Amino acid sequence: MGDAVIAADASGAITLWNPAAVRMFGFEESEALGKSLDIITPHRHQQRHWDGYYKTMETGKTKYGNDLLKVPATHKDGRTLSIAFTVAMLFTPDEKVSSIVAVIRDETARFAEERDLKKRIMELETRMASNAGGPDTAR
User: Fold this and answer.
1) What is the pLDDT of residues 34-86, one digit of tens each?
2) What is the pLDDT of residue 127?
3) In angstroms, rounded to a whole number, what is the distance separating the alpha carbons of residues 59 and 66?
4) Angle, CA of 3, 54 and 34, to the nearest 5°
5) Run of H or E including 99
6) How far apart, in Å, are the Cα atoms of 11 and each of 46, 50, 53, 98, 100?
7) pTM of the prediction?
8) Whether the Cβ atoms of residue 83 and residue 71 lie closer than 8 Å to each other
9) Which of 102, 109, 103, 49 has the alpha carbon at shortest distance from 80?
């Protein structure tokens, strides 16, 4: 599978880490299993991540089962990645959330291309606007 698949239990400990997750995040399976999701969550986003994570565990509801969530992530070497993912929740027989499984795609290159394209469009619009105010040379 080309996408990373990561599962974490109710406490946020990683219980599944597929080969694509190794390629994407740089951590071997043995380094990730049993660790907190903090290993891939940028420090500045950890509080917000955990607030949402524990609310999902408590309520059994998430909007990211159908909607794509786009967030930054951290590679083992410290570089920032742009990822997009959806999640599925797994339930115990008594309807409590036991874990969350995320299917994750690395969108870093695509986001960079999109950012560059938007920058080029803004530059062209600025150039066109400044030319529009000049003297009309067509007669």
Assistant:
1) 999 999 999 999 999 999 999 999 998 887 777 888 999 999 999 999 999 99
2) 81
3) 17
4) 55
5) strand 97-106
6) 14, 10, 9, 9, 10
7) 0.78
8) yes
9) 109
Q: DSSP readout, 34-56?
A: TSBGGGTS-GGGHHHHHHHHHHH
| Distance of alpha carbon 46 from the chain centroid | 13
Residue environment code for 1-24, b if the CB has 16+ CB neighbours within 10 A, otherwise e: eebbbbbbbbebebbbbbebbbeb
pLDDT digits 0-9 by tens, 9-28: 999 999 999 999 999 999 99
Whose tokens are 């917000």? That residue is 48
How far apart, in Å, are the Cα atoms of 97 and each of 50, 87, 104, 127, 130?
15, 13, 20, 54, 57
How far is residue 3's CA from residue 20's CA, in Å, rounded to a whole number? 6
Assigned token pair, 112: 């960079």
